[in-house]
Write a structure and sequence with these properties.
alpha/beta; 19 strands; Urease, subunit C, domain 1; TIM Barrel; eight-stranded parallel sheet; nine-stranded mixed sheet
């Protein structure tokens, strides 16, 4: 049972009606990547002013009682796709609906992507994307640049991205037919230029030769139904690509971040690279921790197609070992929502639109499955959901922690609040959730973005346009958290 808080927080906050209102969060267990401690948190404007026990109450401060609850840094979902234009359509969630969904789940900052645009510099394409996001976003956002073609002035283009605050590039080792794959020479050239400009290289790793060979075989033998999705993109393809990329970049001293590691084989390839002394970071997603490829034999096959695919129960167990053992750096969602109607446009596992919703359920699922069920330390949850994304992508200490001077991005989280996940109460435009009917213990009761309350008592009280682009600080292309 979740009891509503007696607060008028939803009607207050900086930026509403031009009135500045300070907050004092009292009585909660403050959690950071370093540990947990009982403290009050004072908010002055958009920033955290002080953290400590027994902070003085001033007449003008709005007091938020967090007794019996956790006070968490706002979650940073390091992998979302809002308003993604791909394969002749656009994802169901734009920045308005996507960030509303994020806010309702305790996510106060998302990291999305800008794609290259023919005839436009990468910096100009990123600027256009920032303008698009700013108009609709109710939480803050940062950007990665997806690079699919090598521009003539590569070094200058990368430097321009770094100056404007884009913190990373994303490269693909697959999707040749869709135009995403970079061949080896270009892949290395972009990686070196990114490293030299201080951008972290992130990679979607699946071996394209394996994927193309299997697609040809499956189509030839009529084995292309949605139920064959997992077989068409096996875990071996992921492991081969991780090994190859890690070795090529590792020998050049270039750190690399692998998005959505989906399998035990992929995680083992990450371990091998680290044993060789290469700087490798690993991200995984809740769907790889909680769902298996058995789902593809049922009615939800199309709804649950994403790439890489869902794997076996043994893979989910291996990935949990990586999470609980400190080998996984970030848990993010790869939120890429399509409606059921969009999903049904595809007839085979090769043409169903790949992607699922997930940003709103990230924190509740990780808390329930990690902390409640498997004994994960709260500080480790915060490390993977807030601190590491901020550190890796140049947002720390502005984001990712609760400390004086940091942005007032916080979640009052009730660890005893039990909920059943259902699309009918979530906020994505997808109209479905992969986790329908799952029960979770723990739910956000108040969410604040830069000193403004955007969620109060299960009600979204934010507004499009409040979210801002967060420029990444220049870095050496990835530093260890």
């Amino acid at each position: 049972m979740c009891k509503d808080e007696k607060t008028d927080a939803g009607q207050t906050g900086r930026g509403q009606g031009g009135v500045d209102v300070d907050f004092l969060i009292t009585g909660g267990l403050v959690v950071t990547a370093e540990g947990e401690f009982w403290a009050d948190v004072a908010v002055d404007g958009e920033k955290i002013a002080s953290v400590g026990e027994g902070l003085p109450r001033t007449p003008e401060a709005v007091v938020l009682d967090a007794s019996g609850k956790y006070v968490l840094p706002g979650v940073i979902d390091a992998h979302t796709h809002f308003a993604l234009r791909s394969r002749g359509t656009v994802t169901a969630d734009d920045f308005a609906s996507g960030t509303r969904s994020a806010a309702c789940g305790g996510v106060t900052c998302v990291i999305d992507f800008a794609d290259q645009v023919p005839g436009m510099s990468m910096a100009s394409a990123a600027r256009r994307r920032i303008d698009e996001a700013t108009a609709g976003a109710s939480v803050d956002f940062a950007l990665h640049m997806t690079v699919t073609k090598v521009p003539r002035d590569l070094a200058d283009e990368m430097a321009a991205l770094a100056r404007m605050g884009v913190g990373a590039v994303k490269l693909f080792t697959t999707y040749r037919a869709a135009g995403y794959l970079l061949e080896d020479v270009d892949f290395l050239a972009v990686s070196e230029a990114a490293r030299n400009a201080g951008l972290l290289v992130t990679v979607h790793a699946e071996d394209n030769d394996t994927v193309e060979r299997l697609e040809a075989e499956f189509r030839k033998h009529g084995k292309a139904s949605p139920s064959r999705h997992a077989e068409s993109r096996p875990s071996e393809a992921e492991a081969i690509a991780i090994r190859n990329v890690a070795a090529r970049l590792g020998r050049l001293g270039i750190p690399v971040y692998f998005v959505h590691v989906s399998s035990g084989a992929g995680l083992e390839a990450v371990r091998e690279a680290r044993r060789l002394g290469y700087t490798v970071y690993a991200e995984t997603c809740p769907h790889y921790l909680l769902l298996t490829a058995e789902e593809y034999s049922g009615d939800r096959a199309r709804e649950l197609i994403m790439t890489p695919p869902l794997r076996t129960a043994a893979d989910t167990a291996a990935l949990w070992d990586g999470v609980l053992g400190g080998e996984t750096d970030v848990i993010a969602t790869d939120h890429c929502a399509f409606t059921r109607e969009q999903k049904t446009l595809g007839e085979t596992c090769f043409d169903v639109l790949p992607g699922i919703p997930g940003v709103e359920t990230l924190l509740p699922l990780v808390h329930h499955e990690g902390v409640v069920r498997r004994g994960m330390a709260l500080r480790d949850m915060v490390r993977m959901l807030s601190y590491n994304p901020a550190r890796l992508f140049g947002l720390y200490p502005r984001k990712g922690t609760i400390a004086p001077g940091s942005d007032a991005d916080m979640v009052i989280f009730d660890p005893g609040c039990a909920r059943t996940l259902a699309a009918s109460v979530l906020h994505s435009n997808a109209g479905y959730t992969p986790y329908e009917g799952m029960k979770v213990q723990g739910w956000p009761r108040m969410v604040m973005v830069r000193g403004r309350v955007v969620l109060a008592n299960d009600q979204f009280v934010g507004a499009p346009g409040w979210g801002r682009f967060v420029a990444a600080a220049p870095g050496p292309g990835g530093t260890s958290p």
